[in-house]
Amino acid sequence: MNDVKHVSVPDGLFQTHRWSILLGLLVSLILLDGFEDRLPFADQVALWGLSFLFLGVVGATERNTALRLLMSIPVFAWFVLLIMSESLDVHVDGSLSGLAAVLLFGSMIISFRQLIGPVHSEYERLSSGIFGYLLIAMLWGLIYWRIEVMHPGSFNLPEDVAGHRAPFVYFSMITMTTVGYGEITPAASLPRILTGLQAIVGTMFVAIFIGRIVGRLK
């Protein structure tokens, strides 16, 4: 076997299992999306859950690095907008969605760094890889949803899912895994191009991720 470079981390549950904890939180948020049409408080819980997710990613980033600073700035802006929305009843849905896309992308980059950098546990490397893969699905799903909100009719949708975010996360997942059940399909040029790109990105990520993991076990 190849020697695996490990890094020492401070004692503590989060520091030792940070990517596993973040992965569990992300999976919980994805599952919560499936209840957005049944639970009236699901959106609020999801927003605050995302807040803790973004804070966790900042905490999992290497200290005293430019990347951590770059992530901290939009996270601070996220909390400002969220408090404005909750306390002052200011309509900032579009701004929150834009910031969420930026933060999901940044979180994805940070998790991908764990695939090539030294880690204290290969189990954590595996967790960070799955975390990044699911973030791709969430990011693309958010983009699809905003496209449909801004330009209705961009997707062919069943009547009972119009306006909800969860169906687009679902569509993003089946697109990335190239399953393609067909009940939701792109109807405009931009979403068609994006779905094609996502299928390519998803396939390439799986190939690189598996290759990286297997390569470290030889």
Automatic annotation (TrEMBL):
Instruction: Give the matching InterPro entries.
Output: K_chnl_dom
Q: One short Pfam family name for this protein? A: Ion_trans_2
This protein's species is Shimia haliotis
- Reading the lineage from the top rank, the first entry is Bacteria
Q: Give yes or no: UniProt keyword Membrane.
A: yes
Give residue ranges for domain Potassium channel.
168-215
Q: What is this protein called?
A: Ion channel
**Where is the secretion signal located?**
none
Residues passing through the membrane, by range: 16-34, 41-60, 66-84, 96-116, 128-147, 168-187, 193-214
The alphabetical list of record keywords is:
Membrane, Transmembrane, Transmembrane helix
